[in-house]
Design goal:
With 172 residues, the protein is of the alpha+beta class. 36% of the residues lie in helices and 23% in strands. The longest helix is centred in the first third of the chain and has 22 residues. The termini are far apart.
Length: 172
């Protein structure tokens, strides 16, 4: 890898770290040993979820190249499953002259974060099911998990639907 490619990649990682830090309102930094040890570029812990993020800033992006990057993000996540409970692989990439960063994350995680649907993620392969969204959507999804708490192994959420309708004079 040329010095220019390395510095462009590092510039991309710094840019994404800054974007995530601004939008998530938490400390975000690059994993400086990533290139040496083969780990993820950025790691973010939000509640009980660890996002293992691979960043790519490339001159020409194609679906086959993105597929290879996605395989790399999944492989890094699988290698760190023993270290991080609830590890989620994320790929954030951008072609040199694009205005927005694209983000790929597992489809099951998107569904779980958005709707708490009870979707059984074990029925689907992480590699086969994914979605690509703009970075603004990614940070909104990641932020949605901040309000959740886990108590004795169960997730506690509130949806403001536990109103006693009889006190309001309304029949349920």
């Amino acid at each position: 890898m040329s010095k220019f490619s390395r510095s462009k990649g590092q510039r991309g990682e710094r840019t994404v770290a800054k974007l995530l830090q601004e939008r998530l309102n938490c400390d975000v930094s690059r994993e400086l040993s990533a290139s040496r040890d083969g780990g993820c570029d950025i790691k973010i812990q939000l509640g009980d979820i660890t996002y293992l993020i691979e960043v790519k800033f490339h001159t020409k992006v194609s679906q086959s190249i993105v597929g290879g990057w996605w395989d790399q993000a999944i492989e890094q996540c699988v290698l760190q499953e023993a270290t991080y409970m609830n590890a989620v692989p994320i790929l954030i990439y951008k072609q040199t002259h694009w205005k927005q960063w694209e983000c790929r994350l597992p489809w099951y995680h998107l569904l779980w974060q958005l709707g708490r649907t009870g979707f059984n993620s074990k029925l689907y392969s992480v590699k086969e099911q994914h979605t690509t969204v703009p970075i603004d959507i990614l940070t909104n999804i990641m932020n949605s998990g901040k309000q959740q708490t886990i108590s004795k192994g169960t997730i506690t959420t509130t949806d403001n639907n536990d109103i006693d309708h009889t006190t309001l004079g309304v029949k349920p």
